[in-house]
């Protein structure tokens, strides 16, 4: 009953507002519908995040002090048969428009002084995340971090068709934050995956969820709400904050309402509010969720305010995003891949952990940059699977345990001319 009520609300809200800030709430309803254990999984995720932050409360410096540089690839999916780039109302947006968007991310996620992303709020946080267009593609070739794909259609329902979009083109989700720019035809201007797949620390994740995340992981944005210049931009969402907001979801942040009246976003320093800001202005709003009137934080990037009103991520939002990066299996692999490990003179490998229960990484160190081949054989010497990493540096490579049953295996790494093997044991 409750679900139907929410769907009705959502449809009413869609009909009033030609543009909907984000498809997160709709995506959640869809998952609830498709997966009966979804509510329980969500509760477990929140429990783990809470426990992680409790354990690390004295050590927040350790979690907070690191700046991660996130490699980004922007896939422009367009229907411009002439392949003209840029100009008015062209979904095949210009490199300049994309650059303007990346600049905004760095202002917002670093609370950069002298920019729109700066704030003086006592709870305002520097998220210590930086974004840069990838300089190497998955094959190790030089790239500008932008791909362009022509497809003869009139756009997408970005909440329902995200997998279809990702099937057109995607780069390794554990090495790049994939962002697709498309024409949205359902009025929703942004959509993102959420890091629920936290199997790493014992959380239940359905195979269905894991499979879905292999097909689509990243953010989809409508081209009229991307960046700050150069193309045709909407009046309200014209300063690049749709992507700032959606990457917030990719990092595990919720809307301040948690999509229900006076809901809990699990951040103590964001006020509990009755509803998101659906106005086209920055007018102050108040809520009364606890018997006292409080002012909404309409400046928060996770609200629905117009772009020009937004400039705050809070300290608790930062803690939550850092916890999600550590706890989610795919996000943890992502941050492991960000920084190469120290080089060693000769190839060394070690599996962490071994025996393996759920997931594992192969710590692989060598000299310089080499083509790496990771192969897993069963005890009879049959190849189970093989992965190639061209021009790789010393790093953690994930062992794909979903391909392995309980038993003993040999993992073999070839890095350039050197090879090393190790026995691994899987318990499922
Ligand atoms: Zn959202």
Can you walk through the features of this model?
- With 428 residues, the protein is α/β, with parallel strands linked by helices.
- The protein has 2 domains: 309 residues, Collagenase (Catalytic Domain) (3-Layer(aba) Sandwich); 87 residues, Immunoglobulin-like (Sandwich), CATH 2.60.40.
- Helix content is 26%, strand content 21%.
- Strand 9 and strand 10 form a beta hairpin.
- The two termini are 38 Å apart.
- The structure holds zinc ion.
- Zinc ion binds next to helix 8.
**CATH fold description of the largest domain:** Collagenase (Catalytic Domain)
Distance N to C terminus: 38 Å
Look at the structure and name the CATH superfamily of the largest domain: Collagenase (Catalytic Domain)
Tally the helices. Answer: 10
Shape: globular
Residue share in helix:
25-40%
Q: Flag low-confidence runs.
A: 1-17, 58-64
How many discrete structural domains?
2
Query: Strand percentage, roughly?
Result: 15-25%
Provide tags for this entry:
about 425 residues; alpha/beta; Collagenase (Catalytic Domain); Immunoglobulin-like; 2 domains; six-stranded mixed β-sheet; four-stranded antiparallel β-sheet; 10 helices; globular; binds zinc ion
What's this, in brief?
The protein is an alpha/beta fold and 428 residues long. It is built from ten helices and 15 strands.
